[in-house]
Amino acid sequence: MEENKKTTGIVSGIIANLVIVEISGPVSQNEICYINLRGTRLMAEVIKVLGNKAYVQVFESTRGLKIGESVEFMGHMLEVTLGPGILSRNFDGLQNDLDKMEGTFLRRGEYTAPIDTDQAWDFIPLAKPGDTVVAGSWLGEVKENWIAHKIMVPFKFEGKYTVKQVQPAGTYKASSAIAVLTGPDDRDYEVSMVQKWPVKIPVKAYTDKPRPFRLMETGVRIIDTMNPIVEGGTGFIPGPFGSGKTVLQHALSKQAEADLIIVAACGERANEVVEIFTEFPELDDPRTGRKLMERTTIIANTSNMPVAAREASVYTAMTLGEYYRTMGLKVLLLADSTSRWAQALREMSNRMEELPGPDAFPMDLPAIISSFYARAGYVYLNNGSTGSITFIGTVSPAGGNLKEPVTESTKKAARCFFALSQQRADSKRYPAVDPIDSYSKYLEYPELQEYLAENISEDWLGNVLEAKNILLRGKEAYEQINILGDDGVPIDYHLRYWKSEVIDFVILQQDAFDKTDASTPIKRQKYMLGKVLGVCNTGFSFEGFEEVNPYFKRIINVFKQMNYSLFESEDFKKYEAELEEIINERKAA
Hints:
Elements: E1 8-15, E2 18-23, E3 31-37, E4 40-50, E5 53-58, E6 70-77, E7 79-82, E8 90-91, E9 120-125, E10 132-133, E11 138-144, E12 147-152, E13 161-166, E14 170-173, E15 179-182, E16 188-191, E17 195-198, H1 221-226, E18 234-238, H2 245-255, E19 260-268, H3 270-279, E20 296-302, H4 307-325, E21 330-336, H5 338-351, H6 365-373, E22 377-380, E23 386-395, H7 405-413, E24 416-417, H8 422-426, E25 439-440, H9 446-455, H10 460-484, H11 491-508, H12 522-536, H13 548-564, H14 570-586
Parallel strand pairs: 8-20, 18-23, 18-24, 19-20, 19-21, 21-23
Antiparallel strand pairs: 1-2, 1-6, 2-5, 3-4, 3-6, 4-5, 7-17, 9-11, 9-14, 10-13, 11-12, 13-15, 15-16, 22-23, 24-25
């Protein structure tokens, strides 16, 4: 749309954040417009068009807005600015730089530039004149913190282009032209380090997107051993208030095998967002020895910001992830919490008087969530490199009810389900991931099964399934003991229960605040699982059930000491020898 032919309109109805505009010309779905409120411009997005009326959701408070105010349509969708200078920043859902804003509360109609286009960067060319390039091809790179930030052919370019000229290595502003490309129409196009892309459209600058197959190590045993997530996989963590979602997210962001982290705080309470802002910059990055914030971007949307901005924040975060994935990086995207995003969808749907689905959520909620999760994944880029976005969302179901629509819809989309249980949190069994309710569908993928057999061991998957089986049998035995009493069941039931407790205490529970136990490499996880299954498969002889409890507590205690000792150190071997002695005391002949 040409600049001088912008469509205009007049406000004809206001329902809180939903504004109805009578339009003078053509507008498209998801187009951005600005409502003029006595000199203050309020940003809004078209969510429905009926005849000469456009329904727009306003990303700001509409207090004081009157019928008859003028509206100007911009001719483009909600876009993010992509370029060097995104890392270590704090943005809101519309990619305004929060650190540049003054005052405690955001002022209405105040929008800041996400990237300083005048900042100079040391550019190194990667392409040369004569090269054929397509959208997403690498033209050069600059160092952003310690990450090699690739300068790419803009994603909006269609077809094949020829590199006519690339600037030599040197220092350039982000906004200055660093390459000239000749298009299929024989016209020349200048390319700078900065480009724009609409957030609702997935970036598809890759050649192939296979099913993910590589294990993503997180250092958290209950995930890596029991319910592994893969590089480019999707998972979600539902759990009630106080069940340890934040600590688990911190553990994942610190330890997971990712090059960079994007945190979308979507509709969080203000105090939770403040915690992210104050704690994240303080976290040390075990991979580089520097601060974790150097490879992190935070997109924050508190619950007192207008609801429409929550929806924008998750899409903004995903688009930034796709941008870095096209550079051949492993991105970990954490969204907290997608329930509040779904509540924003519900609110707008109700205001538009659409037919409500379960719990008044929109009828198409499962489709919206599925298409969003589908944007994560492992991809092969045009030059043969690979990149990935691993997406883990947290869901805050009201009252911890895992049968509500958001959890159910997310279950259909995500492949890993890490259910946090109030009961485990109350009994201080952290991380409080329920070993029986949780699952990873990736364990059923032949690609991952092959990867595990090659990279860990042939019998790894069998051992994991055996451990899961022992946990299930232990739970059944515990319920029987509870009903019939300690002396009302055979001694076998006590043994079955205590063997499952060994797996629980040694493998599933982990101390996120201990230097050694906080992160467990896969080699150590394999060794410890073998040790624990060795104990579970040993026959023990006892006179009466009273002897079982204290004996297994001794075993668990020594195992715990092994978890707190450096792997294969003197202390570790000392505890291992002690464990052998204890087992031999009661080993059945």
